[in-house]
């Protein structure tokens, strides 16, 4: 299975369904350190995330928007009802997937994503930068040459290449979803095939992703050493879960790491964002509920 080679097709209702489905699982599964229906952060709750994906679903699935419009409109809609930044990474990634499906050509998904990124117009880039400024993600900081708060005279591809050094969302733009196609979705597929409980399968995929890729949100806030430590802790839990093939203690162990991360105020938010778009793509082409 290589979803990157699937043909693009824009089906508005299916895009909205897959987006809502992915976001629903995102908040209903335990992804240690992230908000879920059981535990919140001090500045945001599960209800904030539910509101965020509810008010943006039709924008993400609209057939009549450019990439910049899709992203900017989604962030503006979110900010009307939610004060915290709940979904910038999700919106950036899911908008790119949706936009790639809307291309009026016979091509495969990976090529469509490349096409959208490389041919993004300056006006769209300005809208994307405005959306990032409005969302104001943690650890955004400033860049001497290229800052999203100022007029940028480079392309989207060049901007994402520069910021990919410290941001996983930008990395996926610059690599045209390479990590998503080559690692996260294959691991999601394998987990869903091996683990009967879909929520546990998604949690397991989250841990696999975090163990492989130190979270850039944590790196920006606390440094690379803490991000690597967090990945190591995810790896340690994976070894424990692998020893319980009946999955009886998985929920308890996941909640324990979740509590530990939240007490330390460690939030692997970028990892969660990557998983959301991976679930959306998987659901759109294959179907999460069918597993």
- Write down how many β-strands occur, each being a DSSP E stretch of 2 or more residues: 0
- Content-based structural category: mainly alpha
**Roughly what fraction of the amino acids lie in strands?**
under 5%
Instruction: State the low-pLDDT regions, or none.
Output: 139-144
Helix content: 55-70%
- Write down the overall geometry: globular
Order of helices and strands: HHHHHHHHHHHHHH
End-to-end distance: 15 Å
Helix run count:
14
Q: Roughly what is the average pLDDT, rounded to an integer?
A: 94
Give a short account of the largest sheet: none
Q: In total, how many domains does the architecture comprise?
A: 2
Q: How much is the radius of gyration in Å?
A: 18 Å
Brief overview, please?
The protein is mainly alpha-helical and 291 residues long.
Topology (elements, then pairings):
Layout: H1 12-28, H2 46-60, H3 67-81, H4 88-101, H5 109-118, H6 122-135, H7 156-163, H8 168-174, H9 178-194, H10 198-212, H11 216-222, H12 224-242, H13 250-263, H14 269-285
Helix pairs in contact: 1-2, 1-14, 2-3, 3-4, 3-6, 4-5, 4-14, 7-8, 9-10, 9-14, 10-12, 11-12, 12-13
